[in-house]
Design a protein that fits this description.
The protein is of the alpha/beta class. It is 50% helix and 14% strand. The chain contains 16 helices and eight strands. The protein has helices at residues 14-23, 35-38, 40-50, 65-73, 79-82, 90-104, 125-144, 158-161, 165-176, 196-201, 206-213, 229-232, 235-241, 247-256, 271-281, 288-303; strands at 3-7, 28-30, 55-60, 109-115, 148-154, 183-189, 217-221, 263-266. The chain has an eight-stranded parallel beta barrel, surrounded by six helices. The radius of gyration is 19 Å and the shape is globular.
């Protein structure tokens, strides 16, 4: 069974979505200080207070101009660094953890992701890895202080060009100075559009398999590709995936069946949408030969 978490990135009304998800027994809500132009964390805080059993995952990296101004005035960022509106420098990580805790009204955050640490990646992998290690050091300190339970990396394309799960495991050990680290999760897009991670996982390779083998949580973002798959998946493909499935159900079914996946994040605008997705997540996974057939078909189209 694949867990179903709430991702607030595309929520039009984050407070409403959070109430729906929490009432339905959602195990985790994923957010970030920049979501909703900087409003989503404060918007969901009251729901988190009413449902303390719901785990919260926040992020550090991207910032709004307002966040940048506060970070500079507090000494957490230099003016030049703030101009890029993204940082995983240790001082900024410490600063933003404190701000996230205030906005979410949680003294302790369950997960904090470095948010697209590869955002300014220029091909210098060693330099990027140094910056990730520095962010991990601040996250390890926060874990030791009881401010967070664990941390991870949320990325859109980092696993294809900038780092691997073994890289992150090594950097976390270097940051902690011990084999025992707070690295607990990774988040990446897994969908009919981003199907390569599923193809790799079927052969025991790639980020899904590597993270699962390391005991990390693996969360799929954008399983409906921002809602576009509802319109991109035609009836023929949906029925090829599962007889009688709607386009949305078929797309979610493929993601939920990915080997090594802990859960997928959706944005629910109504209780009906949430219950429909939860029904798909609770079904037995598609057979691996069916997943291979689907991934081969879609990747051949992509490369044609």
């Amino acid at each position: 069974m694949t867990l179903l978490g709430l991702g607030t990135y595309r929520s039009r009304d984050a407070a409403h979505s959070a109430r729906i998800a929490a009432a339905a027994g959602c195990p985790l809500i994923d957010t970030a200080p920049v979501y909703g132009h900087g409003t989503h964390q404060s918007a969901i805080a009251s729901t988190l207070e009413a449902h303390p059993q719901v785990r919260i995952a926040s992020k550090v990296g991207h910032m709004t101009p307002g966040h940048a101004e506060v970070a500079v005035s507090s000494g957490a960022l230099a003016t030049e660094e703030a101009r890029g509106l993204h940082s995983i420098a240790a001082d900024y990580v410490r600063h933003q953890i404190a701000m996230n805790r205030l906005e979410l009204r949680r003294p302790r955050l369950d997960l904090v992701f470095l948010h697209n640490p590869d955002h300014h990646h220029d091909g210098d992998r060693d330099g990027l890895h140094d910056r990730i290690r520095g962010g991990f050091i601040a996250l390890e300190e926060a874990r030791a202080e009881g401010l967070i339970t664990g941390y991870g990396v949320a990325t859109w394309s980092g696993f294809t060009e900038a780092f691997s799960v073994p890289d992150l495991l090594r950097l976390s050990r270097e940051a902690s100075g011990s084999p025992e680290t707070g690295l607990a999760a990774v988040q990446l897009p897994v969908s009919l559009v981003n199907i390569a991670p599923i193809k790799d996982a079927l052969t025991g390779s790639g980020p899904l398999a590597e993270a699962h083998e390391a005991g990390l949580e693996v969360w799929a973002s954008a399983p409906l590709h921002g809602g576009k798959l509802v319109h991109l998946v035609n009836e023929r493909l949906a029925h090829h995936i599962s007889d009688g499935a709607s386009p949305a159900e078929a797309a979610l079914m493929v993601t939920a069946s990915a080997p090594g996946l802990t859960g997928m994040l959706i944005s629910a605008s109504s209780a009906g949408h949430w219950l429909s997705a939860a029904s798909v997540a609770g079904r037995p996974p598609l057979p691996e030969n069916r997943l291979k057939d689907i991934s081969d078909l879609l990747l051949s189209r992509e490369n044609a």
